[in-house]
Amino acid sequence: MKLTVLVDNHTLIDRYFQGEPGVSYFIECDDRKYLFDTGYSGIFLRNAIKMGIDLLTLDGVVISHGHNDHTWGLNELVKLYSEAIAEGHRCKKPTVIAHPDAFLDKNVDGLDVGSMFSSNQLKKSFSLELGKQSLWLTDRLLFLGEIERTNAFEARTPIGKTLRDGIWEDDFVLDDSALVYRSNQGLIIITGCSHAGICNMIEYAKKICHEERVYDVIGGFHLLNPSQDKLSNTVEYLAKCQPHAIYACHCTDLYSKISLAQAMNVKEIGVGLVLEY
Questions:
Q1: Rg (CA), the chain
Q2: By C-alpha distance, which of 59, 146, 165 is closest to 100?
């Protein structure tokens, strides 16, 4: 598997790409190509062009969850494919893979923070595969689906409201999911924001994959001014996993990164980073 960071809050020094508070990764695995999230705008396309990555060859687009900093780039992706078809360029019709709740309306303090597209609108441009169950994309790459939430310190507070069947209800971001790559060295966990809890995600990945070894963890950990209880329990859990490396980005603040780095190998991540397994 090869993972290239197209969008993150930060860019690597001496790599002249654009960053924004969002996430987008280009993943190549078993002769298949996936986009994991699309960031907040169209910079994932501009960065991909500079890196020589052709996003018209995608097999699928995996959405970690339905917040705007992970889905609003879909607007630019739809335009890219629509214009390519209109100009007669050859391109695949990728499948959008997500939890069914990912395209519900979402609101935080009166602000729309959900996807620009409903699932019905996306059907006009892409194939859709929406489900709560885990889904193997290749022999080694897994979409986790809805994450079991088993510990007492993560995912206990709603983030705004979501509109379900015409009723606004507390949003515990049940659509938040992740990818897992089953490498020879152990599991590679790839997250967007980890609203379901990074520790919950890893435990669920271990269960589905029947694998206890965790090699790398990559993505946002939703540790933004976390409570001391949440942070200390997260550090303790991850330290017990003994990962080869942690690439904490996006929604992981500096204090949390420092706390993680005192117990494990935290490496730099930003737009332009390429990881190969």
A1: 18
A2: 146
Give the position of tokens 């501009």.
46
Contact predicate 195/155, CB 8 Å: yes
Give the single-character DSSP code of 203.
Answer: H
- Cα 265 from chain centre: 21
Asked whether the CA dihedral 69, 25, 162, 169 is positive or negative, the reply is: negative
Cβ contact 4:12 at 8 Å: no
Phi-psi region of 86 (alpha: psi -120 to 50; beta: other; left: phi over 0): alpha
**pLDDT for the residue numbered 65:** 98
Element (H, E) at 86: helix 74-86
Cα–Cα distance measured from residue 176 to residue 66, given in angstroms and rounded to the nearest whole number: 8
Q: What is the pLDDT of residues 233-263, one digit of tens each?
A: 999 999 999 999 999 999 999 999 999 999 9
Q: Does domain 2-276 have CATH number 3.40.50.1820?
A: no
pTM over 0.85: yes
Which of 144, 200, 152 shows the shortest CA–CA distance to 175? 144
